[in-house]
Amino acid sequence: MTAKVMQVITHLAVGGAENVAMAVMRGLRDAFEFSVFLPCGVEDSAVGTAMQAELTALGIPAHCGTRKPIKRGGLALAAARMIAAVRRVEPDVLHIHTEIPEATYAAAALVWPGLRRIPLAQTIHNSVYWTPRRRFGRWCARALREASVVAVSNGARDAYQALQRDAGLARPLPPLIANGITPPRSRGDRNPGGVVRALFAGRFEPQKGADLLAVAVRESRLPAGVLVELDIIGSGALEPELHVLAERPPPRWTIRVSPPVPGLADKLADYDVVLMPSRFEGLSILAMEAAMAGVTVIATDAPGLREGFPPGYPWLAPAGDGAAFGHMVADVLARPGEWGRIAHGAQQFAIRHFSSETMCSAYGELYARLADGRWNAEWTQQSPATK
What we know:
This protein has two domains: 4-180 and 355-386, Glycogen Phosphorylase B (Rossmann fold); 195-353, 3-Layer(aba) Sandwich (Rossmann fold). The chain has 13 helices and twelve strands.
């Protein structure tokens, strides 16, 4: 009989965890019967609508929690609806992604202890983990202490271990399952010409360095004769600041701000440069997609982001320093003759290390072990993902 796996992700929207869960379900749909629980439902955006349409096309049912803010009573509603969804679906495995789903599970298990009888997988997606609400994070860690845990990067694994120590738990070091992607359309060896097409895409939040992007653009001193067209794609709290930048750009910059778009990976090959001034990441899917597309990536040495590039990658600025990032942008744009060689090295590294097939195979093994009653000690010791 096919094992039933319920993915628990915050919502259908832009996000690394959401993309990973979708890729896993896409890759393993013939081996497992999937369903999804979304504590915060489906975002009212083109990306949320496209994800929902894909789940429908794949025949994967999605169960929604609430649109009420989690901090204002939404957690209790989401937990109640998770219990109802689990009772209806009766999954053999639950797979929890990121903090809001963790909190929802912890609250649901407090109300219905029977939830704990279902084998639990947990993926740690970020190198900054339960930092602002540490006390609540410790409570969640104790509620999920029986989970079989994996991390997407060494930075994410370190963050998980730090929380476990804070919570007084002695859990084994989790194995790694790196995020995997399907290679997008490749840029090839196209020269940028006189106008450089640049992209920043992601949530307009401090984590992604959206505020630092504005500093970097203003601090960069473009080489003579270079014009830059920058597309800023996303949404978030810092959107007003980015609109001001677009309305009053520095000389020789043309800047457009747009909402998130579905299928961005296959549009990356239209760009010459991707800008990633992140303060921290889990393991950036955008960086890997851009590298696989052969696009020049200018990023930071932030935890969880630097692991997406080969050792010695030259275009990583210090995390958190907008001016330094701007200086690196100017330096890279002054050396287009080096783009092809460095982008090719990053492309080959990404192809070797971030295969969607490898990721799906590792998660498939984890689900099979959990569904068969083989719990985390055996998984931690034997999983090929630990190597």
